[in-house]
Amino acid sequence: MENNKMYLYPTWLRIWHGINAVCIIMLIVTGISIQYSDLQYPFIPFGTAITLHNIFGVIAVISYVWFIIGNLISKNGKQYRIQRKGLINRLIKQTEFYVFGYFKDAPKPYPISEQNKFNPLQRISYASAMYFLVPISIITGLSLLYPEMIVDDLFDINGIQITAIIHASVGFFLSIFLVIHLYVSSVGKHPIKNYKSIVTGYHERT
Ligand code: HEM
User: Fold this and answer.
1) Which of 67, 181, 183, 203 to mutate to test the pocket of ligand 1 (most atoms within 8 A of CB)?
2) Is the Cβ atom of 16 under 6 angstroms away from ligand 1?
3) What is the pLDDT of residue 37?
4) What is the CA(142)–ligand 1 centre distance, in A?
5) How many folded domains does the chain comprise?
6) CA of residue 165 to ligand 1 center, whole Å
7) Residues 18, 21, 27, 33, CA torsion sign
8) What is the structure's pLDDT at 151?
């Protein structure tokens, strides 16, 4: 820690985060257009939406491989490990802080440190998004890009249809994650403090 600042987000992670954020936003916008647009009056012309969705999907997959390798070879991966013992109590304590404590200026139950940069709710939501939702969206997305990988029928239901439903559902949950992520990142002494951290790499204690 230097001058009341902690270096929490190394360059490789910030580059991944920026590329990933642009890709996921583009995937959500083009995905919604593909799913819901009226073919005659599309939000984005259907062919363009498919091409953009495929391009940003492939970039997101490459950046995800980068994230996994970065977490494997650096200490950052440890931040995503979840200790099951006492988990429920930690989650309740952190939820109480967000619902009551934060508005009464109570001290954070889990102050940020270099060893523990996420609070329990962040840890579980980041781990679920990055190690559960994103992999499912990648596997189903790649299967839809190469449909010959998909089994034709599963219990008499079309394999492509099931894959598409899982892909769209995971996309929906990732959109919800993003909205909550953006809100929670603004919680603190100053609303843009955390946004500054993910750009500069430094978390400032105030
Ligand atoms: C415009 C879009 C986004 C903004 C402004 C944003 C903002 C932030 C901020 C401020 C942080 C640092 C604070 C913290 O650790 O909680 C952060 C970290 C993080 N964000 Fe985002 N985010 C965006 C999109 C996304 C998306 C789409 C994902 C994943 C699907 C994501 C996943 C993460 C993860 C996993 C971390 C923790 C990284 C680490 O320290 O290991 N973010 N984001």
Assistant:
1) 181
2) no
3) 80
4) 24
5) 1
6) 26
7) negative
8) 72
Q: 5 has which bridge partners?
A: 2, 204
- Expressed as residue numbers, the domain containing 73 is 5-204
DSSP state, residue 153: E
Is ligand 1 within 6 A of the CB of residue 49? no
> Would the CB of 79 count as within 6 Å of ligand 1?
yes
Q: What is the CATH number of the domain that holds 43?
A: 1.20.950.20
> What does the pLDDT look like over 153-178, one tens digit per residue?
777 778 899 999 999 999 999 999 99
The single-letter code of the amino acid at 108 is: K
The CA distance from 78 to 202, in Å, is: 19
List, in sequence order, every residue forming a beta bridge with 157; answer none if it has no partner.
154
CA of 39 to the centre of ligand 1 (A): 34
Per-residue pLDDT of 27-85, as tens digits, reads 999 999 998 888 788 889 999 999 999 999 999 999 999 999 999 999 999 999 999 99
Q: What is the pLDDT of residues 121-137, one digit of tens each?
A: 999 999 999 999 999 99
